[in-house]
Design goal:
The chain has about 750 residues and is an alpha+beta fold. About 30% of the residues lie in helices and about 20% in strands. It folds into five domains: about 5-170, Roll (SH3 type barrels), CATH 2.30.30; about 175-245, Immunoglobulin-like (Sandwich); about 250-360; about 370-505, Ankyrin repeat-containing domain (Serine Threonine Protein Phosphatase 5, Tetratricopeptide repeat); about 515-745, paralog of FGE (formylglycine-generating enzyme). It is built from 18 helices and 36 strands. α3 packs across α6 (about 355-360) and α8 runs antiparallel to α9 (about 415-425). The chain is rod-shaped and about 195 Å long.
Length: about 750
């Protein structure tokens, strides 16, 4: 019997049976002519023996040799076969297998066994087989029973080989790979690349016994798969595999047409997405220009545009990538290149520039404002760092203003104000380096700017930071001008007034108050009806009269108006916009004192400028006529309205060394107060001792010239005799003391 090479799936150990007996060895290699092995009894020494000296050999690698030298009738032969069967029976048998002497193979289920027979179930039919006809039984549990039948054991092993062993022979089949038409074909066996065969060439490979899934690919989209099963074929025969014949010309045209149809759709998508991106980009650019110039901020419209652009741009990138993936290695590569050229020419490289810029702005990586002024006006604190270093905040100026003043003038958000204050290392809230353009007396301080703007929130921030309305070293005039200006600008905002008052400032709107005072003065101008009047002293000349009061002369006066009260400190402050003269200025409703003639005239000029009227000092004749009660006088009183000075006058006897608020004593018959006492009052006439000797008889106005002006009425520092109706004084125009004031007259009221 010829030798057989068998590949099995399971081995318990390597076995070699020689003519002389079994060897304890590890088989290294089995071939047709020799067996190479390690002798384990000799320390692993390697030997090579001829197959002619071997009866049977098998190893863990799956090979075994069966020679005709085996005597299957003796005990040794039977033992060799038993070892072989034990070590090679597959674990996948589904049924029991019985080999008979007639070389039949029965696949069955053994039901029971007796010494003489075996009962089996063959496809549902029970049968009994005499053991004398059985050569070999192989059970499903891998056990076997051998019945020696000389002459047929080798044939049984051969049949067993065909049934149970998967591969037979020397494990090597020659496979020739052909590519008669295609440029280069890749051959894959069980997903492993076994060769690339060029057109017209052949590549031969050797494969062991197995089943193979063969995959052939020409790289042009043509692939073929087939199954190559070497399990039951004999080795040595060459197997040819050739890539199928392809009509590449026709396939090329068909593929190109199909590709072109699909490409046109893809190209249309790309262009559509690009044009959409470019249109959105135009809108984004318009929004960006508005943002940069401060006309708008990141509103919902801009955010929505950015989202729309991002979606379209992602679609554009995906569509371009699809074309690159699908056509960059095809006949339409030129079309793809032309598309890219078109995209670049249309601005592909810059289509997302605005979106990227706005994204960077949104992430505070780029500035959103054209300049620092716009950043301030739009309250973009994050932009400041792009224009100015922290160290220059205090001294940095825009259009001549400090950062803080510029921000306040542009009604910035309080967060900007707080930010600038926190970054400035100096007392930036009290910067008084700039004056108001229309009033150089007024400091354009941060507090003044915010107040004029009616910016309550920023005022609160400034006050909290210690801001002042004017410098600590400001003069009274500067303080007055500062308060006056700010108050006038804020007159309609009571919240500003209240906030300043909470921080110790009384904002007085002098302009408005002055108008109110003018109205009050007009209301209190008493009409004096003209008529005849005897001016001068008419009492006992030896007791009451002095030369300057004589002689008594009858005159005639036209009607006029004279003020009910002497001009007060309060009126002075509001008209003249300063604290005014006087020792007793803390008493605002007391008559103004320490007033020279010229100062009184200055007050009247200012009053006339405000009122557009013609107030004046009364003439001496008008003063005395009104003091006496005029045409409605009930008596020829010694004092204005009474013969008792205590009723109508503040004099040395009762004043207590100071002036008193006007209107506290009784009025005279015309309703006029304090014409006797309190303060002496300037008249417009020049004073002369002999004035009455040359007096005009109608509306007398005194001498044409002189060196002194007339004073009438007495005062708190003089005794009551000097408060008589007819008592006259004369002082130079610049004379003043704390007992001299004045009252007003006007010829006509509006």
């Amino acid at each position: 019997m010829s030798l057989l090479f068998l590949l099995v799936t399971l081995k318990a150990q390597d076995r070699i049976y020689f003519e002389s007996g079994q060897k304890n060895a590890k088989i290294i290699e089995i071939s047709n002519v020799a067996i190479k092995y390690k002798d384990l009894d000799l320390g692993g020494m390697i030997f090579s023996v001829s197959t002619n000296s071997v009866k049977l050999a098998f190893n863990r690698s799956g090979k075994y040799l069966v020679f005709s030298k085996i005597n299957f009738n003796d005990a040794e032969g039977r033992q060799m076969v038993a070892h072989f069967l034990k070590d090679t029976v597959s674990a996948v048998l589904a049924e029991d297998v019985i080999y008979t002497a007639q070389k039949k193979i029965l696949h069955c289920k053994i039901i029971k066994e007796s010494p003489a027979s075996v009962s089996v179930d063959i496809n549902g039919v029970e049968a009994t087989i005499d053991k004398s006809t059985i050569v070999l039984i192989i059970r499903r549990n891998q056990e076997h029973q051998l019945f020696a039948k000389a002459g047929i054991v080798a044939d049984i092993l051969w049949d067993f080989k065909k049934e149970m062993i998967k591969n037979i022979g020397d494990e090597k089949w020659i496979i020739s790979l052909h590519s008669s038409q295609s440029l280069a074909v890749k051959f894959y066996f069980n997903d492993s690349l076994m060769g690339i065969v060029k057109k017209g060439s052949v590549k031969k490979i050797q494969l062991p016994r197995a089943s193979y899934k063969v995959h052939m690919d020409d790289g042009l989209g043509n692939v073929f798969d087939q199954l190559l099963d070497l399990s039951n074929s004999l080795p040595g025969k060459e197997i040819k595999l050739d890539f199928p014949v392809i009509d590449y010309a026709r396939q090329y045209l068909m593929k190109k047409n199909e590709l072109m149809k699909a490409y046109i759709i893809r190209e249309s998508e790309v262009k559509s997405f690009f044009l959409n991106c470019r249109e959105i980009q135009k809108n984004l650019a318009a929004d960006s220009a508005l943002i940069v110039n401060g006309a708008k901020g990141f509103d919902t419209k801009t955010v929505l545009l950015m989202e729309n652009f991002q979606n379209s741009f992602n679609q554009l990138k995906t569509a371009r990538q699809k074309i690159a993936d699908e056509y960059s290695k095809t006949v339409l590569k030129a079309n793809e290149t032309d598309l890219e050229k078109w995209l670049n020419a249309e601005g592909m490289n810059s289509v997302n520039a605005t979106y990227k810029y706005l994204s960077d702005v949104k992430n505070n990586e780029k500035v959103s404002s054209k300049n620092l002024a716009i950043a301030i006006k739009t309250n973009r604190i994050n932009d400041f760092k792009f224009f100015i270093a922290d160290s220059t905040f205090a001294n940095y100026k825009i259009e001549g203003y400090t950062l803080l003043s510029y921000a306040l003038k542009n009604k910035c958000d309080p967060t900007v104000t707080s930010f600038i204050i926190s970054k400035s290392k100096s007392d930036v809230v009290n910067s008084f380096s700039k004056r108001m353009v229309y009033n150089p007396m007024v400091y354009e301080s941060p507090l003044a700017i915010a107040a004029i703007a009616g910016d309550i929130k920023n005022l609160q921030v400034l006050f909290k930071a210690g801001a002042h309305l004017y410098p600590k070293a400001a003069t009274k005039k500067e303080m007055y001008e500062q308060i006056k200006y700010v108050a006038a600008q804020c007159r309609s905002n009571s919240a500003v007034y209240d906030l300043f008052q909470q921080h110790g400032y009384i904002l007085t709107d002098f302009e408005m108050e002055a108008k109110n005072i003018v109205d009050s003065i007009l209301v209190n101008m008493i009409f004096v009806e003209g008529g005849d009047y005897t001016i001068g002293c008419q009492r006992d000349p030896h007791e009451q009269c002095v030369n300057s009061e004589k002689p008594a002369v009858l005159i005639n006066l036209d009607s006029y108006y004279i003020s009910r009260f002497e001009v007060t400190h309060h009126e002075w402050k509001l008209i003249m916009e300063n604290d005014g003269p006087g020792m007793f200025k803390d008493c605002e409703n007391c008559p103004v004192d320490e007033v020279s003639y010229d100062t009184a005239i200055a007050f009247i000029n200012k009053l006339n400028s405000l009122s557009k009227l013609k107030f004046r000092l009364p003439t001496e004749a008008e003063w005395e006529y009104a003091c006496s009660g005029g045409k409605i006088a009930k008596s020829h009183y010694q004092f204005s309205g009474s013969d008792d000075y205590n009723d109508v006058a503040w004099t040395m006897e009762n004043a207590g060394e100071s002036t008193h608020p006007v209107g506290q004593k009784q009025p005279n018959d015309l309703g006029i107060y304090d014409m006797s006492g309190n303060v002496m009052e300037w008249c417009s006439d020049w004073f002369a001792e002999s004035s009455y000797q040359q007096i005009q008889k109608v509306n007398p106005s005194g001498p044409a010239t002189g060196s002194r002006k007339v004073l009438r009425g007495g005062g708190w520092m003089l005794n009551s005799w000097n408060a008589r109706v007819t008592r006259r004084y004369g002082e130079v125009k610049n004379f003043l003391n704390n007992a001299i004031g004045f009252r007003l007259a006007i010829t006509e009221k509006p």
